[in-house]
Design goal:
Blueprint (H helix, E strand, L loop, with lengths): L38 E6 L15 E7 L11
Antiparallel strand pairs: 1-2
């Protein structure tokens, strides 16, 4: 997600067990474009099923300056 802008790519998954391995690529891009050279990666569990709301109680994690192809480990808190 660009700072203050809309998401560049999104992947919605059913979280059935942890840990999970997830791959995010250009197929997940909102516009079908390659991922940017650096981006902010956010993962969260959505308690109400509405992507537009973000209750403070939903577990989430963020990492900035992620590059495509990087292996990132996030711990949702």
């Amino acid at each position: 997600q660009a700072q203050g802008g809309p998401p560049v790519a999104v992947k919605r998954l059913l979280a059935t067990q942890f840990p999970m391995t997830i791959e995010l690529g250009s197929a997940d891009s909102m516009m079908g474009q390659p991922l940017p050279a650096r981006f902010r990666l956010e993962a969260r569990l959505d308690s109400d099923g509405d992507a537009a709301t973000k209750p403070a109680t939903d577990p989430a994690a963020v990492q900035v300056d992620v590059v495509p192809g990087a292996v990132v480990k996030l711990a949702l808190k």
